[in-house]
Known about the structure:
By secondary structure, the protein is mainly α. The chain is built from 9 helices and 2 strands; from the N terminus they run αααααβααααβ. A two-stranded antiparallel ribbon has the order 1-2. 37% of the residues are buried.
Amino acid sequence: MPKTLNPLELIARSSQPSARFVRRAALTTVVMAVIIVVTGGAVRLSQSGLGCSTWPRCTPDSLTPTAAMGINGLIEFGNRLLTYVLCAAIALFIIAARARSPRRRALTRLGWAQFWIVMGNAVVGGVTVLTGLNPYIVAAHFLLSTGLLTVAVVTWRRACEGDDAPRDVVARPVRQLAWVLLGATGALTLVGTVVTGTGPHAGDARKVNRIPLNWREVTQLHVDFVYIVVGLTIALWFTLRAVKAPAAPRRAVRDLVVLLLLQGVIGYVQYFLGLPELVVGLHMLGSTLVWIAVLRLVLTLRDRGALADLPEQQSGSPEAVRPAEPAAAG
Length: 330
């Protein structure tokens, strides 16, 4: 009896996506992960967190928002619909990675990891609504979105490099400093969720429970972690120059410095202006870009070689697709 082919095998036999297409599909998942964070912030900042009163339906009697729910219902429901767009982007990447020959199982596993994170976070988002925007569950919802962004960035990186055994391009102490920076940035993000849980933007115009901490004290702790992250970044910038690291890590740390400066300016503006919604939204966007930059920096400190189809790598990919530069590069 002939073997029955599953849909992915049929696609793999009928088409052969280029490595560039796989990279761009991976990048699309990164973009969508950023968008889902920013639009989730827009739901909270527009006081639309309970625009749909229940989950998985929007109301007990309707799957979609009704006219009586107004703009808040549309905003909340629109954010839910974006989950399907995100799933479509992830599905496109999984299909492209699976159809690509030779098959790279690491890529498909990372794609499926993204999918299951989205499914889990959708449930957490539903629990957020059912619990009336419990601040701790709201924080967990955001942190899972950050986890999705992390996996998406790693996936994009892996789609841009080969499958050789990882080779360190800097000494171990330099890598350890980068990992400390990554941990400090993660702590900064975690404290940021506590700031959100204690701050004035509760997510809905009605009374919503808040984390019982002093908002200004938590904000000061958040600022302290900002100084730690900036200090570690500057230290890493000087270290990479001192050890004559390859160009890719030096460019990555330079980009991170610029993003941190911009994010710091936005942070101070939002504080002194009393947390206007638009500026807070820009700060959330900046936080995702900073996280991406830190991940990118850490991932440039090791090399897995170039992809087999070098002619396709002349555009549309990060520095990682090129072979690592000699350690003596300027």
